[in-house]
Amino acid sequence: MMRSKAQPRPSAADRTGASASTGGGRRHLPRPVLVSRVALGLALLVLAALPLFLAPYPIGLAGRILAFALLVVSVDLLTGVTGMPTLGQVAYFGTGAYAAGLVGIHMDSSAVLQLLVGSAAAALLALLTGAVAVRTSGIVFLMVTLAIGELVHRFADSFAPVGASNGLAGIPPISILPGGEPLELAGFIYWWVLAVFLLGMAVATLVVKSPLGRSMRGVRDGEKRLHALGQQTYPVKLAAYTIAGGLAGAAGTAWVAQTRFFSPGDLGFDVAAFALLSVVLGGAGTLWGPVIGAFVVILVRDWLSAYVDGRGALMLGVLFVVAVYTLPRGIAGARWRKPLRRPRRTSP
Amino acid sequence: MLSWLDANALSMLNGVALAAVLFLIAVGLSLVFGTMDVLNLAHGAVSLTGAYIGVAFLERDTTIPLFVTAVLAAAAFGMVAGVVLAAMTSSVGDHLRQALLTLGVALIAGDVLREIFGADVESVSAPASLAGAVSVFGRPYPLYRLVIIGISAAIAVVLYIVLERTRVGALVRATVADRAMVEAIGVRTNLVLGGVFGAGAALAAIGGLLAAPILGAQPGLDDTVLLLALVVVVVGGLGSLRGALVGALLVGQVQTLGVALASEYASFLLFAAMAIVLLTRPRGLLPAKTGAHG
Amino acid sequence: MTGEELEPILRLEGLTLRYGALTAVDHVDLSIREGARHALIGPNGAGKSSLFSVVAGAVRATEGRVILGGKDISSLNESGRARVGLVRTFQHSSLFLGVSVLDNVRLAVERAHGRPKRPWPMPRTDRVITEKAMSHLGAVGLVDRCNALCGALSHGERRQLEVAMVLACDPRLVLFDEPTAGMSAAETQRFSELVESLPAEITTVVVEHDLDVVFRLADRVSVLAAGRLIADGSPDEVRADAAVKEAYLGKPRSAEPLFGGIS
pTM for this structure? Predict the structure, then answer.
């Protein structure tokens, strides 16, 4: 055993992937584990209890925030953890959403089935497109993923079986299991969305704590170095891309479970940009930071804007500008972390 | 072949006209990225503002002097906007944060424009003396589009001469190639960068204004223009004048010929073409000769 | 200094690298016996870095072969060569700055002993990996820094970490690319001790500017000038070699601190 008493143990925070890109030069300063567990527990409690004291409209908004947050987490797996900034996750988000909607309309209203089909379809598409896309890196990768997102967007916009530009409407309310009672109450649907979100977060957390997650951070911090260690980086990037695609697909199924409608506008360039910037706003590389980023973005765009005469875009703009200057490491890096000098990625 | 050419010649000419506008807009985006590594997502908004300057100046019975005044106003606005953006982004280190910042600016600008000009499509009239049609390949063709092609070609030539034949141009090219080295020999690159950003934004505003009589001005156009310009820049090669030109011509043709020949697939063609170019030539068709970005 | 009767661990045969008209490495033949402490020196522009890149697999040779332990590895890339035991370090430490010191080593251990692409954690296996990584950190004296962020390490500590990562790859031969460049005297001292303490079965090849380090660490020295190998022998032989003196040692003796210190 190497861990004799004399030797320091690897800290708990170190073993979570979440601390990977945060943290300053100080040693032995993990976020107190107890505090973070309590905070997590409280957050879960509040999230689970929301339907008990919120009206149906805000509950629907909360559901959409959770679904979008899962999309943002998938963007973060690539952007923050693997160092591959992407605008293409909307493609898989849309794939999952449309697949779930089509299953709902033509086959079965089971949310579990829709989740499985939607995530699998999205992961498959991510595997196929990623096989080509992850050969590039940096700004070229960003642009290739933009092309993928726009291609799927435009395909959806003209493909009649998914309603083309009118969107896919008439999706029946979900039931949990095949042949089950449809969930009509907003609260129950919200709980399903919350379950999908937590499942997705669990998958993402496991991945960042796994050897693959470590390799992903290796790709981010020095792909060349990882290569020199004997690691083939292509499979790492493709695996990350496929998993992120599956998570985005799951997010899509959760979104349609909530909205029962999906249109090409839901996977446009602006959604892709907001998802990417939610990651930056929240703090790339951590998982919970981007969730908060997503929360803030959707809240400002869809909820706060209603109170200020449809000025969502303006407020988002101000938010972004202010955040760039006041939160140099995103929300997640706001207080206790010294800014960390990260290796500048050379542009291609 | 001949009959095909005959049938599609006007579409191709339209493609060139679109390319002319796209070139003006994209070249600034490209040079700004090349010199400063800044992905300026507010570029579309600057261009749209140029179009709205057209709306403000050119309601009807536009005369040539008035038109020229509008162009100068757009250029002046773009210059100021570019310098301000350069100052704002210079203190922000990383690509994604710069993108976040410029997208924020774009959102604010879009909202302000909507507030001033409304959400409807505003049309802009070309100068009355340019509003007619001339015969091209035996068919009538709007004179104004030919004028746009001419203006854009002239600007391209001037840009080429400035970049390739003057000291200032040499400095800009050197900054694209290796900014640290230029700084090391004692040049204040901030001035170069501010100048490039300003000139690039001025061209974008002019491009938006020139396109306004064809495309009109409306909220959302900034996103469309930005996307097209990004495609142009990426296809052509970041930081290169010739790349922007080639990219613009290609995108112009894909857009217009695509609509004319296969309208069902037109919307895919552009991004499919971009994906193919990127995967076969990741640095674009005609990338800048650089050290640092290589 | 013989050992040639055994199959050498590394053999270069007519290794040549040309960039257009420029010949950076010119028909280099070299054998390095297993367990050797080999140094490669040469004046600036002699082609040391080019030869290093070709041997490491970062650049494909124009001609010639690289043979590791009797196996032709010329067609393998850098990552392939690392997997058969030829591991390099980088001149400018290139570590994974955004992750912890421990994670840096774990990345290397996982590649060599684990399944680096397994997408879920397995506490028991991961603990074994962690223990291996900690033992490598122990070998280079960085155990108490295991939780620090790699970006917070000093220059010398980074070099130590680099050695730990190389060890974790289970190397048969380690290529050091100017390892003491930019180090303080104390750091250089510590680093030399570290290299000296490496297990005897690991062959090391050091490309180095600092001749004090070279003559301390190496039991055999090869001298490169203008892309060619001009001398190859024990440190004393090389010191006495007339061609070497002319190409390298003779003239700039007084200027030695220049390329010893700064480089």
Answer: 0.81
Cα–Cα distance between B33 and B98 in angstroms, integer? 11
- The full set of domain ranges for chain C reads 10-94+171-262
Contact B170, B252 (CB under 8 A): no
Strand partners, B140: B135
Q: What are the chain B neighbours of A276 within 8 Å (beta carbons)?
A: 96, 99
Band (A2; pLDDT cuts 50, 70, 90): very low
**Amino acid at site A192:** W
| Residue B24 · residue B201 · CB < 8 Å | no
> Chain A closest CA to B255's CA: distance in Å?
14
Question: How many Å apart are CA A326 and CA A164, to the nearest integer?
Answer: 42
**pLDDT tens string C92-107:** 767 888 888 999 899 8
User: Which helix (H) or strand (E) element contains residue C14?
Assistant: strand C10-19
Domain residue extents for chain A = 55-268
Distances (CA, A) of B294 to A62, B114, B186: 45, 41, 23
Say if strands C203-207 and C37-41 run parallel, antiparallel, or are unpaired: parallel
Range with the lowest mean pLDDT among B160-169, B193-202, B258-267? B258-267
Among candidates C81, C121, C135 on the partner chain, residue whose Cβ is nearest the Cβ of A2: C135
**Average pLDDT of every residue of chain C:** 82
**In which domain, by residue range, is B191 found?**
16-219
State the fold for domain C10-94+171-262.
Rossmann fold (3.40.50)
Q: Which is it for the CA torsion B66, B68, B69, B74, positive or negative?
A: positive
Å from B206 to nearest chain A CA?
24
* d(C-alpha A114, C-alpha C263), whole Å: 62
Residue B56 confidence (pLDDT) above 60 = yes
CB contact under 8 Å between A150 and B271, yes or no, is: yes
C107–A215 CB contact, under 8 Å:
yes
Q: Would you say B48 and B257 are in contact if contact means Cβ atoms under 8 Å apart? A: no
Number of domains in chain B: 1
What ipTM does the predicted assembly reach? 0.82
Do A321 and B101 make contact, defined as CB atoms within 8 angstroms?
A: yes
C63-68 and C37-41 beta bridge pairing:
unpaired
Question: Residue B12 burial (CB < 10 Å; 0-12/13-18/19+)?
Answer: middle
Whether residue A9 is predicted with pLDDT greater than 70 in this model: the reply is no
